[in-house]
Design a protein that fits this description.
alpha+beta, 18% strand
Amino acid sequence: MPFGHAVYVQRKQFIEKITSLDEVFDFLNQWPEQRRDLAHETLLKACRDAAIGRFPLGAARENFRRFIKKAGMLAEVDQFPGLGRPSADRNIGNT
């Protein structure tokens, strides 16, 4: 299920563009076990509910954005002058 607007995640060497619920699931599945907490569990449940239509997709996207922001990993495209809106198929920055 694609989002209307991507969420950008700051990784060590690049910025990852998350554009869909499937990509959020992949991200959450890769989240380190030792960092999985109530926020991770709650977000995962919200995403599962969104996948079956019991929770708004936009709300799941916003919850993911907040989760990433709390983790200090939220990247705003505005932080990178001259890049504008990148294509959906590539990462931004040094890959």
